[in-house]
Fold each of these.
Amino acid sequence: MLALIITVECIACWACEPICPNGAIRVKNEIFRIDKNSCTRCEGHADLPQCVEICPVEGAITDAEGSAMNPPGTLTGIPREKIPA
Amino acid sequence: MSSVQESGCKSIRSDSGLVEEHPCYSEGASHRYARMHLAVAPACNMQCRYCNRKFDCANESRPGVVSGVLAPAQALERAGEAMGRLPNLRVIGFAGPGDPLANRERVFATCKPVRKRFPDVHLCLSTNGLHLPEAVDGIVGHGIRHVTITLNALDPEVGAEIYSWIFWRKKRRRGVEAARILLEQQLAGMSALLARGVLVKVNTVLIPGINAGQVSEINRLVSDAGVFSHNVMPLISAPEHGTYYGVMGIPGPSEAELQQVRGLCQGSARLMTHCRQCRADAAGLLGMDRHNELLPASPGGSRVIPIHRPRREPVANPVLLAVASLTGETVDTHFGHAGFFRIYRVSGDRIEALGERVVPQYCQGDDRCVEENHVLNNALNALHDCQGVICSRIGYTPWQALLARGIAPVNRHAEQSVREALRQTALMLQAREGAAIPMAAAVGMQ
Ligand code: SF4
Ligand code: SF4
């Protein structure tokens, strides 16, 4: 239930990796993923999941059910109907 | 030297070419001396509304866009290569594709060996300023003597219109709060740098209707502080960039608007007018590339002249090209998602479809792809005789792998018609004559 997931939307920008308090973000060949056994959603460290807070790409991080932690429009401020496909 | 202002231009000049050998600080130098940017800084700590981190297009000439990120060791290698090809290389800069100070360790880890190997080269860095105050010691300690700060607003209400968010103290912050924090950091960082004798340039992106009224005030403030030069640069904005301003239809300024606002800047900081708004992986002399004449009008118009020179040898006629396209109509598929490639032989306007080559999917979009690097090799093998592969997007690893095999990855034709993409790509590949100006960094260009 806790662990988050990095999707193909990830642009491999490395912003999240150094700030994860649990070292849960693993990188291999520029593919980023979250180790589900290490991710605690930052509990005890920060109010909000740190990777989600810094990630610049909407939809790059989801919860276990696949819903975006940063939904479309929330980071760019672009209204939903104008978001390019 | 307590500050640049007190020491004055004279001592700056005599200080081992600090100004006159830097093409961005001196228009004279821009004709004589080359500089390169090492793209070692992928991460950013905020979102400007003129930037789209997601759009990795090789044809983009905006700062912040780069097609591959270098590890410090690769960066040293790239610098060495460039030194060999550009004997007049005087400046090595760190400008992105994210913010160099959001990647401080990488940047400083690159400075050390670069300085050791090329002690005469000037190091410079561009930053949004958010993490500047705490980085000043490191900047000075690593021998970086030129710093450019982008300062777009003094009024946080205006800043709130320009920045979507900043990441600050464990939280994403927005609006006036974000703009205020950013401004405080920028101004504190600027003063600290000046007090340490660093040569500071300030960039301001002129965004019509948003910050035009701030520019002369910024000019006055930074001039009074002792900033060496001020660069008022036009917003680059087009819908296909996918930036906030692009999508919302806020265009860049006209030449007349730009001149009018520049005319209001009367402070002592030298107004810079020869800026070419380099990409974060640029290399060469400012504005000396003619490569783009062969390509569709570059986003942002003629003001923007990319300074790359392709390194590859020209390709003979006809050209064999692969296209990642599900429909066959438009370039609609990510390299990593392509289950097959369409193969074409192109010679002038003649385009011959040779069928499809099926390749195992390189990335399934889940954890498995980490273990499936061999599939990338399968894809590469299937394309071994092609001179280029056209796709909508492509990751860094396959990009590098293709380049290493002499296959040009082309992602600038995303969503365009396959025919047009083929025609233009063939043209581009064939036009690569021996460069009059040696080319250093090829990563960004196909
Ligand atoms: S939510 Fe926190 S613990 Fe989990 S991966 Fe992101 S930063 Fe690490
Ligand atoms: S911050 Fe987001 S886009 Fe950047 S590497 Fe992490 S998940 Fe990927």
Amino acid sequence: MATIYIDGKPYETKDGINLLDTCLSLGFDVPYFCWHPALHSVGACRQCAVKVFKDEKDTKGRIVMSCMTPVADGMRLSIDDPEAIKFRASVIEWLMLNHPHDCPVCDEGGECHLQDMTLLAGHVYRRTTLKKRTHTNQDLGPFVNHEMNRCIQCYRCVRFYKDYAGGKDLDVFGCHDHVYFGRSRNGALESEFSGNLVEVCPTGVFTDKKFKKHYTRKWDLQAAPSVCVHCSLGCNTLPGERYGTLRRIRNRYNQSVNGYFLCDRGRYGYEFVNSKIRMRAASVKIKGAAPADEVAPELAISEIRKKLNGTHEGGIIGIGSPRASLESNYALRELVGAENFYHGVSDTVFNMMGEIVRIIKDGPVAAASLEDVREADAVLVLGEDVSNTAPMLALALRQASRNAPLAGLAKFKIPHWDDAAARNAMQGEKSPFFIASFTGTRIDDLASEKPYRTAPDDIARLGFLIAHELAPESPGVPDAGEEEKSLARRITVALRNSKKPLVVCGTGPQSIHILRAAANAAWAIKQAVPDARIAFSLPECNSMGLALMDFSSGRPVSEALKRVQAGGAKAVIVIENELVESIGKEGAEEIMSLPCSVAIDFIATRTSQLAGVALPAASFAESQGTFVNNEARAQRFYKVMQPQNKNIQGAWRWLREIEAALGTAKQCPEIDALTAELAKKMPQFAPIADRAYFPPPGFRIAGMKIPRQPYRYSGRTAMHTHIGMVEPKPPSDTGSALSFSMEGFYDASKKQKIPSALLTHYWAPFWNSVQALNKFQGGVGGPLLGGESGKRLMGASGSDPVYFTDIPEKQKAPGLSGANNRGLFAVPLYHVFGSERLSMENPAVASLCPEGGQPFIAASPRTLSALGLNKGDTMGLEIGGTVFEFKTVADEEMAEGLAGVFVPENGNIRADLAGLYSKLPAWARFL
Amino acid sequence: MLALLRALWLILLHTFKKRVTVQYPEQKPYVPPRWRGRIILSRDPDGGERCVACYLCAVACPVDCIALQAAEDETGRRYPASFRINFSRCIFCGYCEEACPTYAIQLTTDYEMGEYRRANLVYEKEDLLISGQGKYPGYNFYRVAGVEIGGKAKGEAENERPPVDVRGLLP
Ligand code: SF4
Ligand code: SF4
Ligand code: SF4
Ligand code: SF4
Ligand code: FES
């Protein structure tokens, strides 16, 4: 701790930070541009000037850039010094010299850091009569709009895009007052984190291109805390609604998870909520007649009752979903009974998830949060292509790759926040970082040596070897080659010498061996380095929640199919799930042809089309529930808006209504009561009822709820008048402490803290931009004042590791040459834009899917030529008895003998392809 | 008693004073040009819609009776796809006009808006948009703004230099 004097008053502050950070953390409004809490200082904009005095006697003082000055005990500074004020006012005046007269048509307006700082620094009147400099714009692709005139040359964009996110195609060009921030030529930004430019740029140069299409000002967006549904990391989001449609998604700060950023899949994946594929009415299929008829909800329920008549004792099976909330899965499990509840995932995924739960629950190494990942200083990635399956994990790994050299800067006395100096001193040095994968990944540039490209089992063997090197009691790999061994030894030395080693793996390669090898490796490292962590990437947003439901007694959907085939079921209820993906087309058809089949989903799927009764569920934006992320952190998402019509309701509510109709009358409680019931019945979920993290519906501050709408929400008395003159009462929300209103408690002052789990937007007096967030943090960049907004369900067990002993054999060399044995090993490939069904409903996301959204097989050029194929040819592969024909793509990085199979998850992909991933990895016969 | 007689006397005197009642509607009272009456949306000197759908009038409105939705034409010019004022709520405070950065929304001298049905007091964009410039002739926001729209490329607005050649190294 240090004591400093600001304008004569003493304050306690943290050591080792800079003055700007200190002043903002203490609540002072010091204007700034180029500094960013995650990107730190470069001193480019000169806006943050304050005056520093030598001692008490010094009255003259000198002006310094607060962001570049380290705090020192006993320091005296002045923010209100007239000279400092004048200096800041003249800096903003320069910055505004060329600024266009755009605010009314600028999408940043109303949440513009430049507007805020202009007012704060006291520049209110344009004195100059000089002509303004102008720039032409570029087309930067479907996500980000470019308006270069508005640039103030703060360099934040390139510092985020290149330095923080590792992008290569955005840069600064030109010289003096002509500097230009853009690409070398028109074209879509390549980084999957490009959307963050919208929040990072303090002006309207980079704005959200999708939001522009249905533009609304920040003050008109109704928002609620939510959780991203497009991968397993559970990034926190703030979706905003206006006039009944979802308009945009913004980052919701959570220090332990996503911090300040989101990936483009999460930011732009929301369009499905508004899209045509939504189910908006209940439908019942009359025998033989297709398509199904739309009916009123009550009719659908009575139809289900009629069909179920008598069968509900053990005759109904329920198929839960890794996409549905804990509450919906639980309601289904209660309705059908635990012994009739099946996990709607393939056998492979089911087994992998079971293993991951055991590794986290029973093993000695804790699962890493994204914050842990950002702090790691040595990394081993086993098999998982994180940039494509869990993008924000890749961004966190990129930060980890700087930690080891950053720690070494202490000897040069360079503080970590002095960004330009630190990067210069590091000279591109990196933390020990090892990658084993099938093919090239977008984090290959982080690797400290050439990534190891090989087949899944060989990746697992590397993990086992490392584990054995570190802990001889873990099983070795007897027939390991010299190359494997020496690589393992190098990795071992690096991991052992680190302070926070991390092993990354996941379900992407669909190899249980890799998961076990990663666990062995992490456990073995833990013997030497206590702070070891393991990070998993999982298939869906609630994969972990579903896996935890019945982690020892659960059954995958294939068991349900067997039961149906054996005649052991008369009815089936499926929630928010595409069965075709987990059990294939035939299997799904067989299950859905039971006398009574019900599908509850928010989008129309093949499964819902097969169902006798289809019920429209609410999407994440229209319902409340709990997801459990990859590190078993339970997080609540709240209703952002009311469903678009009365037919749509949460899956859990449909299930409770069916239950009531069957006479097993449970009251239809509020969602919060259901959550509480679930937490009570299933001890593994007990923390989700913890009121400190998840405030109850009765929670009030000063007797008030927390408003979903900002104070200046406009148009209330005109937005409904095309329907009727009576202004409707705002919907009541009995399930949470949030209100569908602008009235309620909202205050950024540190005295009354809004719980982080209920924070609906960031705003404070003078701070209209997203940087108002500073006011809600204990110290800038630190945890939120309102406490954590999610709770880990399990940590490391503390017991000794029980190493896995099942070592796979070395992958047989594929028999490319022999005429009879034309074998290739088919492995699954993923793409950030393409491998997730819901985000693909946004045409902008779909347009970035590789190979024009067509399935393909990638193989190395050598493999291709051995097969006598050219790139672009159609290749036939027989996988598990089915023949697939895809276009071939030459992939320089692909390991020899592997065939990487990519099938995009868009709505119109052929049904037989939809289940292909559940069969991978597998030997395939080249035809 | 005395007070009563005094009151009667005063009333009698008033019968000889000049009348203030006007024979409305046959006879219209004088309204000053800055009268705050029925609201219109005006056009710029080139005949284009002045409103750029910036939402500032809506947010300034103390009774929240303005609801609009922004849209953009293919050349990048922003305009309101819909614009609605609920006059049954409007208090004719004029804040919207004050907030408007383009002189689009203006209060006029027309106050004859009585209706039997409240719903008739809801004016949509086609009821609001007039064909002239209203009280403030001459101003065209897009001629001043830096954004590119149809018919005005980068650097062609008032007080602008032509776009920078990024590859140029000359000062
Ligand atoms: S960047 Fe900010 S100040 Fe500049 S035009 Fe946009 S809203 Fe106005
Ligand atoms: S484009 Fe935005 S972030 Fe980049 S330098 Fe200009 S103002 Fe700063
Ligand atoms: S005059 Fe006042 S009340 Fe009427 S629309 Fe304008 S701002 Fe709203
Ligand atoms: S303030 Fe003016 S330009 Fe902006 S939306 Fe209202 S009428 Fe249109
Ligand atoms: S914030 Fe300090 S110089 Fe830019």
